[in-house]
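USER: Note each token:
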Amino acid sequence: MNNVIETMLNHRSVRKFKDEALTHEQIKTIVEAAQSASTSSFIQAYSIIGITDKEKKKKLAELSGNQSYVAENGHVFVFCADLHRHDVAAAMEGKDVSTSLESTEKFMVSLIDAALAAQNAALAAESMGLGICYIGGIRNQLPEVVELLKTPDRVLPLFAIVAGYPDQHTDIKPRVPFHHVYHENEYEQDLETYKQELEEYNNIISAYYQERTNNERSDTWTAQMIGMLDKKARLYMKEFVEGKKFDLK
């Protein structure tokens, strides 16, 4: 055990922040930590857009499902898959690499690179005593987000991280048990064992909600997930992604 691992294990989403902006030095440190993440073949296929303009933050909050903490925080970092710079690099080198840039493989690389960078940023922020929350809601209305952020083709806003000084106490939500996530040598082959492990997790989550809400809520993880997945959401995404010249080949 060490300070880094303790910070990781202490993660929780924060959705209420004090009215205190991050300093330039804090922002720079968080972004530099993000840039230190592993990147496939040194491609660095992501960009980060920081939002400081209050009106833009309000608009982004509205587009994200009217989540107030997207507008009220210390800083907003929007993580984008970015192959635009590689388009520019190709022009500088006098080459056409569109077939590669439009492949599913490079699309996956850009998503993975952005996610790795974001998690580094999140950990850096939390190690500085800040709270964070990932915002996937920016994908609710991506055409409007793209217009707001003025991102070119081959740049795809994926999610945001809001960061700041916490103004609330939030509990750590129990994750799926170790033995259900970690498979040794091969994926779990016994479906009954697999279901039993999920039932175990259902009991853990139900107890967590009962304690947190004084028995007003007791839903299970599987019921919660299927309730969410049963709703048709963001079904425009494939067409939109292809329109931004990702995942075409």
